[in-house]
Amino acid sequence: GMILKKYAERGETAAPGKALFKVGDTSNMYLRAYITASQLTLIKMGQQVTVYSDMGEKDRKAYQGTVTWIADKAEFTPKTIQTRDERANLVYAVKVAIKNDGFVKIGMYGEVKL
User: Fold this and answer.
1) By Cβ atoms counted within 10 A, which residue in 38, 53, 62, 84 is the most buried?
2) Under a CB-based contact definition with an 8 Å cutoff, are residues 77 and 89 in contact?
3) Which GO cellular component term is one of those annotated (predicted)?
4) Residue partners of 43: CB distance under 8 A and separation at least 6
C-alpha cells in the first residue's frame, strides 16, 4: 500500500485507537462518471471503455477501463459539472476501474469514452 495521509509526527505519543496513517492501494483506481438516460442504453457491466486523464494543458493520457457499477437510480447532476443546463439534468452514476501506472492521483478529473 501507499501512505495517503499522515496523522502523527515522529516523536508523538501514540494512543490506542488513534490512527497514525491512512494507507491505500493505488494500483487500481476508480473513476465515477455520470451518464444521461439516453446514454444508459449504451453501457453495461463489464464493458471496456477508454478513460482519458488530463496531462498538462493540452495533452491527455488514455487508459483502458472496465465498468464495475451502474447506479440503479437517477440523481441530479453534481455541482462540479460546468454548465447550468447540464447540472439540471438527471444522470446515472457509473464506476469505472483502471490500472494505475502511477500517474493517476486521487481526486483527478477524467473523461470516459464508450
Assistant:
1) 53
2) yes
3) cell envelope
4) 35, 49, 67, 70, 94, 114
